[in-house]
Amino acid sequence: MLISPIAICGFALGLVLTGGSLAQSQRRPQQMGIKQPTTTISQEKSHEEQRGTEKSPLIVKVAPAQKTDTERADETKERERMAEAERNKIKADSDIVKYTGELASFTRYLFYATVALGIATIGLFVAAYFQSRDTKRAIIAAERSADAAKEAVTLSDKTAKLQLRAYVHVADVNILYMDSEWCPNIRIRVKNYGQTPAYKVSNRSGHMMALIGEPVFSLPETIARFSDLGPSQDQITTMIVSLSFWDQLLKPAVKGHAAPFFVFGQITYFDAFQDCASEDPHVTRYRFQLHIDDEGVPLFLFSDDGNSSD
Q: Of 10, 96, 109, 231, which one's alpha carbon is 20 to 30 angstroms from that of 205?
């Protein structure tokens, strides 16, 4: 069974009117039974209660506003983001602690390595010192060895030259026609005793008898004549003595041992290792004394002085 809208509206209007009358009837007795001052005090208390006091402050409860689904989703995302950031921070702190520990270990190892490197450097300095000392000694020894080798080579070269060079000396001296009608001939034979040729060989010779005082051995000025002598070759220089001077003075004095008779001279020459244009020649000086035995045989012997060669 359906109720009409008009009936419902009428019922609602009746309820409103009834409620209003009941409210007025209740307020009237209260206004009639309460005095005016009392109303004022209660109003003041009501105002004080609304303001609150220091001992009893006014507390107002505010109901939170309802959040939408979007706001709640944003808050959820924010909380997740903050939680993720917190986890990342914790992980970062853990990594920092880990890396700090590794850095400390690396620093410790680096310290040990630095100490080892310092010790090794000191060792290298010590080794370098001894090596430098040994090297200097080796260099000095090498220099001495090189000098000795050079001296040996020089000595060997000099020895080879001395062994191979030319040596020109007097081979013998004799006199011819000592007891004849001819003028005596004093023959001086010089020979190259070396193994290489002698160049520009020159022999200047003379003779003298020391009758009074010390003998003087001065060579006469003559024109130099040069010749070359190969190994074992010789040449003869002849001096002719006046027959009268020989028979009257020289021969009797020599046989009677009254005065010595000398034949002397000087040989100059170059060997194969010399520069004839810039170097000085070799010089051989000789001096012989004539002796005649009881049978009248002449013999020329080397004098005690006046013989030299280079």
A: 231
